[in-house]
Amino acid sequence: MTWIQSAGLLIFFILAYAAFLLLFENKIIFHPAPYPEGYWNPTSLGVPAQDIYFESEDGVKLHSWFIPSPNAVATLLWFHGNAGNLSHRLDNIQRLKRLNLNIFIFDYRGYGRSEGTPDEEGIYKDSRAAYKQVLAMDGVSVDSLFLFGRSLGGICAVETATNHPARGLILESVFTNSSDMSRTVFPLIPLGWAVRSKLDAVGKVPHLKLAKLFLHGTRDEIVPYDLGRKLFEKAGNPKTFYAIEGAGHNDTYILGGVGYYDALSRFITETLKNSNNRG
To answer: Which among 11, 69, 122, 172 is placed 20 to 30 Å from 161, CA to CA?
Structure first.
């Protein structure tokens, strides 16, 4: 085979895969676990979750849990990561009890008990609807509301923070945009141009004026640590970065230990004290 034939074959492969991405992009990007997959009896694990149903901006019915905490110091609006559904975060929710926070966690369309099928614009609509819903809950105020996004959820948290006030933004294991991630997944094949879902956080964080905490595992096998650092470096002030030594993508809240929860607690406490950190 000549080099011309080899180059032609490579171009054909790239174009064929690009066409495949266009046809099945949402199935490749999003990995929801619809009900009944998961664990749906949170009270048996000591999590007093209230089932809350609400509608997205386009009428899609969504499901969430609201876990109130007695004398809560703040509320966490949780934008969870790509795979699974909210029920797969129960262990993490249990461990967060020590921080004395109300937690509102919801499923994007197609995840858990939420209706519909996920796509980029859809999960943004769901995120904005969740923001409005959490502020309607008893004891929740925008002055003590923290947006917490992990992995893909961080993209949603950034999008929400762009046009909605909150006290602080917490981004854990979050990537910069889909183009950078495509280079991570396919380092030898330039496919970023073929991905319609931009999932852009790095273009938005420079404009966010609220307090921001970035956390990332140093051994993250899915979202490289360097992408988390890049996102942090592009962000505007005020901002803080906390490296979770030895942690991968899904075990940050376990391997992070006391230091991890101290970093969260310190950020929330200091941000609440500073009346200028609302954006």
So the answer is: 69
